[in-house]
Write a structure and sequence with these properties.
Blueprint lengths: L3 E7 L3 E7 L5 E8 L6 H16 L9 E7 L2 E2 L6 E2 L11 H9 L4 E4 H12 L7 E7 L3 E7 L2 E2 L30 H5 L1 H12 L5 H9 L3 H25 L3 E5 L11 H9 L9 E3 L6 H8 L3
Parallel strand pairs: 1-4, 4-7, 8-11, 11-12
Antiparallel strand pairs: 1-2, 2-3, 5-6, 8-9, 9-10
């Protein structure tokens, strides 16, 4: 690395910024809540303030640096506007142009799942594999595709947008406009909505998982369906892509049963009698996205 690297991970609930030195060593990091309820301008100002504070930690201000950012969506290269963002206040705004104007520096922006996949492939659980699909299962659900050392973006920049493949046309309405998207089935918010719709009671994902482990009937019903939906969705993906490995991130990646009961469901739905694809838990935790963002910077 010949330059200092600033990375920003813009999430729905938190915005994190990191500074890496010439050798890729972490020098500084800070995390703030994402002010999504205050609107687009507040989010923009929050990012710019974090970058400004991060720059102050570069020992010699004359040294060059790059800036990369992961977002829960994509930038349409033709219009320069944000598309497909589950932080919906970003949609339709020229985020890259606006941020570059404020900080007077070029910024490369990638989908956050792509940043996650890149980081886990370079220094995490999927190191050494040539083709890897990175899954994020948290409040939403997304994916990124890593092939032969780099992120594969696709013709429209949507490669890996696994969460918005509809597997149930009669299912729950998704914010993207379709029904029964994978995100509505196996994200934390999707499972919580399924529980409330079925039983008329609001419970968090953590409460539902705890109830399942304690043998509570309603929670068990919902979680068994969650595992089946996970198996159907990931089994179908592996049948199409046949990656050397899958790595899972996001808050739901910490559900231990995904790597036992969940994998058994994947085996049920994949188009192969003897599934050998490693389905791995991430090693970098919620730091993966911010490292990946730093490495894509310009």
């Amino acid at each position: 690395m010949s330059e200092w690297k600033i990375g920003i991970d813009l999430g729905g609930t938190k915005t994190e910024c990191i500074l890496l030195d010439h050798n890729g060593k972490e020098i500084w990091r800070k995390r703030l809540p994402t002010p999504r309820e205050k609107g687009y301008e507040a989010i923009l100002d929050n990012i710019a303030a974090l970058i400004s504070e991060t720059k102050e930690n570069i020992p010699e201000q004359s040294q060059s640096y790059t800036v990369g950012m992961g977002i829960p969506g994509i930038i349409d290269e033709r219009s320069g506007l944000v598309m497909n963002a589950n932080t919906t206040v970003l949609i339709g705004n020229p985020l890259r142009k606006d941020l570059e104007k404020i900080i007077s520096h070029p910024v490369r922006i990638e989908n956050d799942a792509n940043c996650f996949a890149l980081a886990e492939c370079k220094s995490g659980a999927a190191t050494g594999y040539r083709t890897v699909f990175g899954v994020i299962m948290g409040t939403g659900c997304g994916g990124g595709l890593f092939i032969n050392g780099k992120i594969h973006e696709g013709f429209h920049g949507i490669a890996g947008e696994w969460g918005h493949f509809s597997i149930d046309p009669d299912g729950t309405q998704c914010w993207c406009g379709n029904k029964g998207c994978i995100e509505t089935k196996i994200s934390g918010s999707g499972v919580e909505k399924a529980f409330e719709s079925r039983f008329g009671i609001k419970k968090s994902m953590d409460e539902i998982i705890s109830g399942y482990r304690e043998g509570e009937k309603n929670s068990t019903e919902i979680i068994l369906q969650f595992y089946d939906d996970f198996g159907r969705a990931l089994g179908g993906l592996i049948s199409i892509l046949d990656p050397e490995a899958v790595v899972i991130g996001g808050g739901l990646s910490n559900i231990d049963e995904l790597y036992s009961e969940g994998i058994e469901k994947v085996k049920k739905y994949v188009f192969h009698k003897d599934l050998q694809t490693p389905i791995l838990k991430n090693k970098l935790g919620d730091s993966a996205g911010v490292f990946g963002a730093a490495w894509i910077g310009i």
